[in-house]
Design brief:
Elements lengths: L4 E4 L6 H12 L3 E4 L14 H14 L2 E5 L11 H21 L3 E5 L9 H17 L8 E5 L15 H7 L6 E6 H7 L8 H13 L4 E6 L1 E2 L10 E2 L9 H6 L10 E3 L4 H15 L1
The site of zinc ion has 4 residues, from loops.
């Protein structure tokens, strides 16, 4: 399928029992899950029965499953305890992804805190994140997907061109990829709603990191205007991006085969409507 469409699903109660039941109600063709509390540092082990059921049912339904790492992770932090926890937390998400058969783990690109320079922060990203990529030696290990931000504070990566220095810091590791969040990139200043805005943005991304690095899209509309540097997701077509850019997104060569995951408001009904709309625009 050119662009499987799905959503982030809740998993309290079990990856398979709760997560896949929700995915079916959305008629999702792809899912994203947390494997730990996204606002904490805990690294829970999986439930082997649920893991096995999840793997088997995803395979049966032809559903790809993606893992989103916790939000607290920041490899650019000037606080050593935060960096240490970030390493432990991301390693956990990568291991759990392999256990449940997920092809990728999404991690936020972080920020340079404490007034330090981007260069110093990126040197630390290299020192602490590159070893985790080097640990991905099994054939079924996941990709590590960098998700840029809306450009708040001292973000290390928000414009498409910012992926350049980030990839350089990580030696453009073969297991490195990108998760493009449409709300974030729009809020960062890329006007997806302008004529040729989607094509220009994707072309720039490919020119920066090369072909084949875009592995996942977070499909979210934006409650705020272009360049607002605010991360507030809206339902598809209900924000400042609008429907048409999503149609263009799914026609661009760089997104061929790339799944779309919605992270929008509105509960289950809102999610089902967004999945249906994206399928219609596809
Ligand atoms: Zn996102």
């Amino acid at each position: 399928m050119r662009n499987p469409v799905g959503g982030h699903v809740p998993v309290a109660g079990g990856l398979a029992t709760t997560g896949l039941a929700y995915a079916r109600e959305l008629e999702a063709e792809a899912v994203q899950v947390f494997v730990a509390n996204p606002r904490g540092w805990a690294t829970p082990g999986g439930n082997p029965a649920q893991d096995e059921k999840f793997r088997a049912e995803c395979a049966d339904d032809g559903l790809s499953a993606w893992v989103h790492a916790p939000y607290l992770i920041n490899f650019g932090s000037h606080t050593e305890a935060t960096v240490e926890q970030s390493v432990i937390s991301l390693r956990h998400s990568l291991r759990r992804a392999r256990q449940i058969g997920a092809p990728g783990v999404v991690v936020h690109t972080g920020s340079a805190t404490g007034g330090r320079s981007r260069e110093v922060a990126l040197a630390q990203v290299r020192e602490r994140m590159l070893p985790l990529l080097d640990e991905l030696t099994h054939e079924d290990d996941p990709y590590l997907l960098l998700e840029s931000t809306a450009g708040q504070g001292s973000s290390l990566c928000y414009l498409a061109s910012d992926f350049g220095p980030y990839f350089e810091a990580l030696d453009a590791h073969p297991r490195l990829g990108i998760c493009l969040d449409t709300c974030h990139i729009f809020a960062a200043g890329h006007d997806l709603a302008a004529p040729q805005g989607v094509a220009r943005t994707l072309d720039e991304l490919v020119a920066t990191v090369g072909e084949g690095r875009l592995k996942l899209i977070h499909a979210n509309d934006s409650k705020d205007v272009v360049g607002a540097h605010k991360d507030r997701h809206a339902n598809i077509g209900a924000g400042h991006i609008g429907e048409e850019p999503f149609r263009e997104l799914m026609a661009h060569p760089a997104t061929d085969g790339v799944p779309l995951i919605i992270e929008t408001p509105g509960g289950k009904e809102g999610h089902a409507a967004d999945v249906a709309l994206l399928k219609k625009l596809r």
